[in-house]
Structure formats: structure tokens, C-alpha cells
Amino acid sequence: MLNQTFVTEFILLGLSQNPKVEKILFVFFSLVYLLTIGGNMIIVVTIVYSPSLFGIPMYYFLSFLSFLDACISSVITPKMIIDFFYERKIISFECCMIQLFAVHFFAGAEVIVLSAMAYDRYVAICKPLHYSSIMNRRVCAILVGVAWAGGFLHAIIQNIFTLQLPFCGPNFIDHFICDLFPLLKLACTDTHIFVILVFANSGSICIIIFSLLVVSYGVILFSLRSHSSEGRRKALSTCGSHITVVLLFFVPCILIYAQKTSALSFEKNVFIFSHILTPLMNPIVYTFRNKEMKNAIWKMRKRLFNFPGKHFVI
Q: In whole angstroms, what is the distance from residue 120 CA to residue 266 CA?
């Protein structure tokens, strides 16, 4: 197909065209963004500067997950917040493609990191005697490298799909970011084959990996029968956090990309939850239920700000 793109910019319709509503949304999403960046960066800094945590694969992956959450939020939320001040929310074609690539790049990497975290828990619980030899630093670094490479491959495929589409007008996107389904609705050609390709690249990946994660956690929970009550309690607490994050990430993605048609109003709501609110909830899920993280954050706080006080005790 010849690339017959004539559109040089897109106009985002955003979440609302009501100025009063936009002011409320500006305050709300500004607060969400600040809390998201602050919470995730606290986790990253705490783990990186805590040798006792950074050497543990679970926390090594958690620091990477928090970094990816901060990146995803930064790709989406600042642009959306700034647009609340403008009646015409314009984004150039080039910036649209960059935003599309960045969102799928970081989200694709996060899928692999969540899979690595599930594998780490499987080895720790089901093969504890071989854990240190299997999950060594080299293996962890390779898994992180695979996450970067997998995210890049996934994002570049999505962009190649999109760049093959001719856009000759109109250029109004009923969304607050550039994403695949809103762009497909603007293409001046039959997009049936492209919808199938999006389903194969995004939807099927979400379903397959989510199914594998569910099976792996099922195996983990089944194997806990032979553990002591204290061991089961600690394992269930850790796995509970992972399962919560997996559900928060994968269920919205499946709702968006695993169907061949998608109502844009529904997609916008799900997108807000999965790409803006979920990165805020992940730090809460991992820190509020984790004694080691709470103690490490308290120590870091005292070391940086020289706050007096006793050691944080749960």
C-alpha cells in the first residue's frame, strides 16, 4: 500500500469539552500524576540504594516495574494535563507516532517484567533449594534485557502497522492520546486487515501471557499445601500483591485490545484506569503489604532527611 498520508496534525477531543469540567479534571489528574511519579520513584530509589533489597531478584524486578510505570504515566498524563488549558488540543503527526510508540514500548516491557516476577515467585516457592543458582544476577539482567527488546519489538510492529495507513481527513481523534483504534477509525481505507493484525499483536499477546500467568500462580498456590502455615502466609502475601498487579494490568488491556471492535468512550475509560490510575496503585499494593519495603523506605527517609525516630516496626 502506498503511504498517502496528507494529515500533518491531529486534534484530540480529550475527556470533555466543558471548561468547568476540564478545570476539575486538571486538578485531579495533576494530583494523580504527582503521586504516581513520587510513589514509583520512592520505590526505585529505595531499592537501588538498599543493597539488602537490590540484590534480591523480586525487588530488582519491582524497581524496574516502578520505573516503567513512571515512564508510562509521563508519556500520557502531562500532555493530557496541558491540553485542559486549550480549546483545540493539537498533536502533530510525528508526535502522535512517537507517543504511540512510547506507550506500547513501555507497556510491552512491563508485560515481560510481570512474567519475570511470576517466574521468580515460582522458582522461590516451588524450587527453593535451587533458587539462588537459577535466579542469579546474570539471569535477572538477561530478563530485563529481554523486556527492553520485547517492548521495542512490540512497539515498532504497532508503528509499522499505523504508518501504512493513509490519513487524508478528518483529523479529529475522539481520545486524549494517540492510540491504535482511534487512528484506525480515521484511516481513508478499509482497516479490517489492520484490526486483525492489532488483535494478533496486542490482544493475543495479552490473552496468552495472562493465561500463562494464571496457570503459573495456580501451580504456586497448589504447591503451598506442603509448606508450613507461616511459609504459606508469607508466600500468599507476596503472591497476592503480584496477582493484584497482574489483574490491574492485563484485564483492561484485554478489554481494549482483545476485541475486534471497541467503543471509544469505553476505551477511554478503560485506558484511564490501566495507564493512569494503575501506575498509581502499584506502589500502594507493593509497599502497604510489604514489611521489608516499609522498613527500607523508613531508613531511606531518615538517611536523606535526618529525621529522628525509631525504626519502623510492623
A: 35
Q: Does residue 156 sit within a domain? A: yes
DSSP one-letter string for 70-97: HHHHHHHHHHHHHHTT-SSEEEEHHHHH
Residues shown for the chain: 314
As for how many domains the chain has, the answer is 1
- For 203-258, the pLDDT digits (tens) are 777 888 888 888 888 888 777 776 667 667 777 777 777 888 888 888 888 777 66
Q: Which residues contact 170 (CB under 8 A, 6 or more apart)?
A: 186
Contact 158, 176 (CB under 8 A): no
pLDDT at 186: 86
* Bond prior to 57 in cis (omega within 30° of 0): no
Q: Is residue 312 part of a domain?
A: no
Q: How far apart are the first and last CA of the chain?
A: 62
**pTM of the predicted structure, to 2 decimals:** 0.86
SS3 state of residue 11: strand
The per-residue pLDDT for range 99-144, each reduced to its tens digit, is 999 999 999 999 999 999 989 988 888 888 888 889 998 999 999 9
Instruction: Tell me the average pLDDT across 75-95.
Output: 91
What range defines the domain where residue 206 resides?
A: 9-305
Residue 260 in any domain: the answer is yes
Instruction: Tell me the average pLDDT of the chain.
Output: 83
How far, CA to CA in Å, does 62 sit from each of 99, 116, 235, 241? 25, 10, 16, 11
Q: How far apart are CA 92 and CA 7, in angstroms?
A: 9
